[in-house]
Amino acid sequence: MCGIVGYIGPNQAAPFLIEGLTKLEYRGYDSAGIAVFDGEKINVEKSVGRLGALTQIIEQKQPQGCLGIGHTRWATHGRPSDANSHPHTDCTGKFVVVHNGIIENYMTLKEKLIAKGHIFKSETDTEVVAHLFEESYEGDFEAAVKKVLAQIEGSYALVFMTQLEPDKIICTKQDNPLVIGLGQGENFIASDIPAIINRTRKTYILSDGEMAIVTKDSVWVQNRQGVPVTKKVFEVNWDAEAAEKGGYEHFMIKEIYEQPKAIRETLTGRFNKDDSAVVFETLKWTKEELLKIKKIAIVACGTAYHAGIVGKYYLENLARIPVEVDVASEFRYRSPLIDEETLTIVVSQSGETLDTLAGLKEAKRLGSKTLAVTNVVGSSIAREADQVIYTWAGPEIAVASTKAYTTQLIVMFLFGLYMAGIREMLPKERIKELIAGARNLPAQAHELLENVDPIKTFAQKYGFNEDVFFIGRALDYCVALEGSLKLKEISYIHAEAYAAGELKHGTLALIIEGVPVIALATQEDVYEKTLSNIKEVKARDAVVIGIALEGDDQIDKYVDHAIHIPRADKYLAPILAVIPLQLLAYYAAKTRGCDVDKPRNLAKSVTVE
Ligand code: F6R
Q1: Which of 78, 92, 376, 452 could form a cystine bridge with 351, CB 3.0-4.6 A?
Q2: pTM for the complete prediction?
Q3: CATH homologous superfamily of 453-591
Q4: Catalytic residue status for 604
């Protein structure tokens, strides 16, 4: 996720660009830059670090000009640095772009452009767009952009400008947001409404495949086929704070709804051409080195630890390699048996959690290979680990982790499949089947999020209970752990997760009339056994909410309420099953009037022991 802005009109561009980027900093904040046309040439200023670093440069240099574009970055391809910051330019500096998204085929395009003599200054996927723009320009800005779009694959919101035609900006989008703010004799472009809300409330919201030619007096929109599109003006009536949350009441619910996109981005570029193998471009270990790994240790805290537990299932079941999972604050105090034949995977959204970082250092000291799974490029954990796989969830602002968890599961699943391929533990057909299943996940998550009313109703009904139990077996148990953490951390309801088969060894004593039990039953291998456990709690008059696969009518006979999730392979079901639990926690917290985004006593990043 990154933030982009653009301005064309009679006024100085830089003040709006900086103001707009400030409002978009929640979308990314590891570097920023602007490009302004001064009447003769385009001047680009950019800086690594928070927006403040760029603002200082702009205050000193005072770039003059009434046409400009800007960007605040959340790194994906290439670490945060001045060179990797946007805007990106071609070889001549006459063609400039800012981009939010991922150009999937950038490596192939880059090789071709280098062969033609183009010189690249950054490690980003975006820079290919600037060079393609230069390559495609033959005196017609619009035609050049169309040629560029015909060559790139992936997700994008793109804004183009060139000093050769400084009377317009061209912008387009595919899978990433872009809005145009309609002013009087001036127009604004931004990733999101907060950036323009102080200037205008009249907007066009671009749809996928649409391209807009924006001058100071007009906005002309066409679709991918070049057919003109008549846009309806969307009048924004949110206040500035609501606008930052995209119209949602809290960041947490916004981030829950961002999961289809976050999952899709995390899957992007991670399969070979015929979808028969997982590829990790950034992993530099050879097959021989990976085959020497005899054991995997996973180290993490909180929600990331829960993702690690799912990771153990994936790696042991798919790749048949032994895995230990540790809470990071325990790991280094228990003399772990780690050596050079161990791979230690640390999982951390922020990449800054002190215990996880310390666990990583301990594993390195013991000679282990180390791999970080993190959401923040250039974070301490990303820098310290030998190799990194990023979750591309975009910045997570709410304290309760949601989209980071589902994308961590995606990475653990992909890494399990990758290791299964290396160790030749799964037939190609099964790998293909699982990859096809993974590709369905964004649409399935979207479908789930379309029908939340029953979950709202349960949350309102049971939100005032003081104890809630979560049960499940196998991967359902792992998801139960996360569901219970979500509920307790934001609603302050006492919640416990149990392996369903373990209930009768003590916990069943706590199940009395009216106690809500959330029973996950998505794992076909243990389905009948889970049903028996559901019957056990029903016999004690618990109120049972079952989470089951679509088409499972049997469950409805045994539970008080059933939530059906789209049918998915047993390995992929957890990624969907957690979504109703996140929603349940969210609506329960709302029902109880809790501060959802900032739960008491908790911080987003825990950098103390
Ligand atoms: C719970 C939550 C925390 C974090 C934990 C680790 O919703 O967000 O449990 O998962 O503090 O944080 P990271 O992943 O940043 O290392």
Answers
A1: 376
A2: 0.78
A3: Glucose-6-phosphate isomerase like protein; domain 1 (3.40.50.10490)
A4: yes
